[in-house]
Amino acid sequence: MKTEVTTKTALDGRGQKRKAETTVRASNRTKKAAISYGEGDAEESASDLEETPKPKAKGRATKKVKVAETKVEAEVDEDGDTKVKTVKRKTKSKASKKETDLAPLQQRTVDTKLRVGAHVSIAGGVQHSISNVLQIGANAFALFLKSQRKWDNPPLEPENAALFIDGCKKHGIEVGDCCLPHGSYLVNLAHPEAARKKQAYDSFLDDLTRCHTLGIRLYNFHPGNSNATTREEGIRLIAEHINTAHKDPATGSVIPVLETMASLGNTIGGTFKDIAEIINHVDDKDRVGVCIDTCHVFAAGYDLRTPEAYAETMTKFDEVIGLKYLKALHMNDSKAPFNSNRDLHAQIGTGYLGLRAFHNIVNDERLHGLPMVLETPIDATDANGKKFEDKGVWAREIKILEQLVGMGVESDEFKKLESDLQEAGKQERARIGEQVERKKAKAKPTKGKGKAKSKKKVETEDEEDSED
Ligand SMILES: [Zn+2]
Ligand SMILES: [Zn+2]
């Protein structure tokens, strides 16, 4: 097998650590897949590609990349010790280097009442999120603070943190109010077993610390699951971790924000009651919040589609949790029908929620100023069949959401937009809708009362649910 070796060396600005990367590329395999969906291996390379949109492990292209390319990474520290490790090559990082000056797809809207944006990539370092935010004309954003599918991550580089803070200042990005990082998928703060508990807490604390360093005030995470314990104990453990983190000065005044979840079963956070119970156990109630994920709540049985249904859901939220705890929203349409407990994000207006739901949300003045973050799928295929991320989708969706403020639902403009978007999502809605129905029917015991069973079944087959 012929190999081609390239080496690049990056010097960190303070000269504390040199990082040399050697790329070993196998030339007898495909080199074409320029975007690797493999796991990021460093803070500088953790990419939203791993989540937003979630890569579908659909076969050969992805596998080829993994087989074809490996990377040897050598870290040289100050006293000359060299640690060499072989990791999966991320061709994405190469592409991202070129993207430092991203051509804007949309300008940011001045004088908007909303803070809308998307979950952007930090490939190349956390500071690169800023150009991604500007590119899509966003006023809010989410990001991962480190690789969201790995336990071991290098610390946040002070140089990168400084560049992030400067970049926000330079571009008038009020990071304390508009940024909502997303926590790791591995962390389950409801795990009762000592070693797992510590591992989860350490990662949680590390994320909160990174937020504080970066001037970020809100931190969104999935509450956890009670697979290894009871729901009551799980809820108590999550709150206990939040309380412990609050007491650590390294977390500053960062607010942990609990995300509402789509699933029921052992998942904690699928009901407003779960969230309320966690908050009940938190001592410093000024430092805990909630993020409504529109797709998740809809899938969990909270309707948002009509003004009446929306009002009812928000009243329920206020009564059970309290509106003062609402700190942010994830703006996603749903490919799966109401109350299906499936977590399948769709582009705005194309799913079962539809444009009317988003009209209800953006015209609710109580939510103006809260970060609204798109986690909609943007994977697309070009004319040559090559997959790429179409960030133009987010740029358009941001503008749509902004335009919906004050737009009459009886206007021709609204009706046309609504029907165009519904048309665009028609096939996908039918496909997933049919899938959900089929699974329900299949899982139904002879007498037909097996909700829990039907859910389990659905989760193990067909379309994989998103995690965001
Ligand atoms: Zn979400
Ligand atoms: Zn999430």
From TrEMBL:
State the protein's name. Apurinic-apyrimidinic endonuclease 1
Q: What InterPro entries has UniProt attached to this entry?
A: AP_endonuc_2 (IPR001719), AP_endonuc_F2_Zn_BS (IPR018246), Xyl_isomerase-like_sf (IPR036237), Xyl_isomerase-like_TIM-brl (IPR013022)
**Cofactor(s) required for function per UniProt:** Zn(2+)
The major lineage groups are: Eukaryota, Fungi, Dikarya, Ascomycota, Pezizomycotina
Return the Basic and acidic residues bias intervals: 420-438
User: From what superkingdom does this record's organism come?
Assistant: Eukaryota
Ranges where the Xylose isomerase-like TIM barrel domain occurs:
132-402
Tell me yes or no: is Zinc among this UniProt entry's keywords. Answer: yes
Q: Which HAMAP family match?
A: Nfo
SUPFAM superfamilies of this UniProt entry? Xylose isomerase-like
Q: Name one GO molecular function term.
A: isomerase activity
Listed under GO biological process in this entry are: base-excision repair
**Keywords noted in UniProt:** DNA damage, DNA repair, Hydrolase, Isomerase, Metal-binding, Zinc
UniProt similarity note: Belongs to the AP endonuclease 2 family.
Renumbered to this chain, the Acidic residues biased-composition regions fall at 40-50
Q: Where is this region: Disordered?
A: 1-65, 420-468
CC per GO annotation: mitochondrion; nucleus
Record's Pfam families? AP_endonuc_2
Species the sequence originates in: Clohesyomyces aquaticus
Q: Where is the composition biased (Basic residues)?
A: 55-65, 439-456
